Amino acid sequence: MTGVPVDPYVVPALDGVAYGLLVFVAAAGLVLCFGVAGILNLAHGLLFAIGGYTAAAVLDGGWASLAVALAVGVAAATAAGALVAVLLARVATAGHLTQALLTFGVALAGGSLLVAAFGPDDPPVRVPAALDGSVAVAGHRYAAYRLVFIVVAAALAVLLHLVVRRTRAGMLVRAAVDDAEMVATLGVSPAVVRVGVLAAAGALAGAAGVLGAPIIGPGPDTADAVLLLSLVVVVLGGLGSMTGTLLAALAVGQIQTLGVALAPSAAPFLLFAAMAVVLAVRARGLATARTAT
Amino acid sequence: MRGRAVRVLRPAVGAAVLAGLVAAPWSVDDYTVALLARTLALGLVAVGVALLTGVAGLPTLGQTAPYAAGAYAGAVAGGRLSDVGPVQLLVAAVAGAALAVVALPLVLRARGVVLLMITLAVGELAVVLAGRWTSVTGGTDGLAGIAPIRPLWGLPVLATDRSRYLYTLLVVAVLTGLVLLVLRTRAGLLLRAGRDDEARLRASGHRVPAQVAGVHVAAGAIAGAAGSLLVTAQQYVSPADFGFDTSALLLLGVVVGGTASVGGALVGAVLVVAARDWLFGALPGQAPLVLGVAFVVAAYLLPTARSARPAPRRSTPTARPADAPRPAAMTGVRP
Fold it and tell me: What sections of the protein cross the membrane (chain B) (predicted)?
């Protein structure tokens, strides 16, 4: 399709897709936590940052390092997610304020440890050399890594959908959302489901952190930024709906990239305005929307 | 027994705290006085948080949004409208209330964790906005060199840290007293009733949404006024004053003070923020770690944080918030 008139918005739009899918993979974990355990995990951004710092520390331009970074980052973030679940288990009967305090404490302490370990500057991230160039997309040069990232993240989204929809683990998770007491009578401990879900949420956030490090790089502000984006996406998506979260993430991606390209002066307000409009329109279903898919 | 002791002790403790706060600027250095004034402004935001979280049962992490709106509105009014403190306070309170009105569609129907989530997003978006709306807020650099205020028309400007602190203390005391007085009326009773059993209050013909809207806007106005006090106290303002950590510190302060106690929230927030500032000085670089551990410990130890659901510890298998009852699930009858 070379020869078509040069469209200056192709690159921002593609960037928006990559950004949106990244936010989706990060936010999916938050949706799971929230849907299953009613937990607002304020440490979720930290889990993403763990993946990002791992990527920065391990990646050296080769494919093997990417595999190692992915394995280490996912394992570390999974462990951190499970740790949050274990800490929360001790206050399982306490209210949501306790959850907020506890998970924020973990976020604060963990963030401080990350900065102590990796320094206060944003470390550079080296993508595999084979993906370090750019390719032609509709007459534009576009970063090859981002294109591959779009494919991989889309595959992850499909995989997540299949796991939640088709596997026994997914069914238990969905059942625990609808009726935790009933799941308990099946002989499955809701506490185990909760640890599993928080660990899975950690794995997703860790994977997003490693793969997305070239897009949202690791740094002292990463955890807060990712938590905010995830929150906005989860709220926009209808608090518990995976499909809604995906749509919201893609929309937020476009707002953050295409919106800035189209209307630079209005850009700061767009995210706020989008959230206000969507929630004002569908506020009725918000507090009750609690299905896991 | 305990209740009676609290009733007798509370006014005494309140008076002692107030006396200590009035005497403080004569016993510490100017830097600490300025720090105390900032802390008091945050304490006033905590009063609004306690009003929402403890009294009305609407947990919030987003009061930094009207706080920021009030701070910038007060600062802009100071530069373009008037250097009289109460005028700036009024403008800031209106700005805070207006932001609360804008956020109403988002928060009106949400409760519990959902509300925490939405309010946190609103608060964070407000910080993002403050950082990017450079023409009004000065962007991430903020607005510096804000002129000192006059306490009233015709009076001299508050040129010293001590005078600014005393002005802040006076405003915080008056507004907190006002909130406490209102809470003793029927309005306070209705708010607590809505927290304890919303369905019943609704069934008895009370307009709960109007009530929620009212308390949310009132808390927004209080936070807005607190924003103006912050500007008065530190004479600059930047998005860093309204971050995620500020919301969390406020929440901790309110929980430490006892969620349902407005006066306690003020004292709790002042203690927590003072401890934070002291930690940052005493342990450079390590403060966030210590603070984070303190949050976790507080979650385990504080009775007010734990008693939000009175069930015995190991009997209920889920951490689902108490305010999301699902009768169909309990009976096993599914539609």
Answer: 40-58, 87-107, 114-133, 165-183, 248-275, 287-305
DSSP letter for B84, please: B
Q: pLDDT per residue over B124-137, tens digit each? A: 888 888 888 888 88
What local confidence, expressed as pLDDT, does residue B304 receive? 55
Inter-chain contacts counted by CB atoms under 8 A, chains A and B: 215
Q: What is the pLDDT of residues B170-224, one digit of tens each?
A: 999 999 999 999 999 988 888 888 888 888 888 888 888 888 999 999 999 999 9
Q: Give the residue among B299, B259, B315 at the shortest CA–CA distance from A88.
A: B299
**Which residues in chain A show pLDDT less than 50?**
1-6, 284-293
> In whole angstroms, what is the distance from residue B54 CA to residue B49 CA?
8
**Inter-chain contact A102–B299, Cβ cutoff 8 Å?**
yes
Q: Cβ A38–B243 below 8 Å, yes or no? A: no
Compute the distance between CA of residue A148 and CA of residue A229 in angstroms, rounded to an integer.
22
Q: How far apart are CA B235 and CA B168, in angstroms?
A: 13
Is the minimum CB–CB distance between A180 and chain B shorter than 8 Å?
yes
Each domain of chain B, given as residue ranges in start order, spans 27-241
What's the full length of chain A, in residues? 293
Instruction: Please report the pLDDT score of residue B14 as a whole number.
Output: 80
Helix axes B85-107, B64-80, angle to 10 degrees: 150
ipTM above 0.85, yes or no: no
User: For A100, which of B110, B251, B292 is closest by C-beta distance?
Assistant: B251
CB-CB contact of A219 with A106 (8 Å): no
Interface membership of A252 toward B (CB under 8 Å):
no
Per CB-CB distance under 8 Å, the chain B contacts of A111 are 288, 292
Residue of A nearest to B130 (CA): A268
| pLDDT tens column, A140-156 | 788 888 888 899 989 98
User: Which CATH architecture is the domain A9-262 placed in?
Assistant: Orthogonal Bundle (1.10)
Asked if A102's CB is within 8 angstroms of B306's CB, the reply is: no
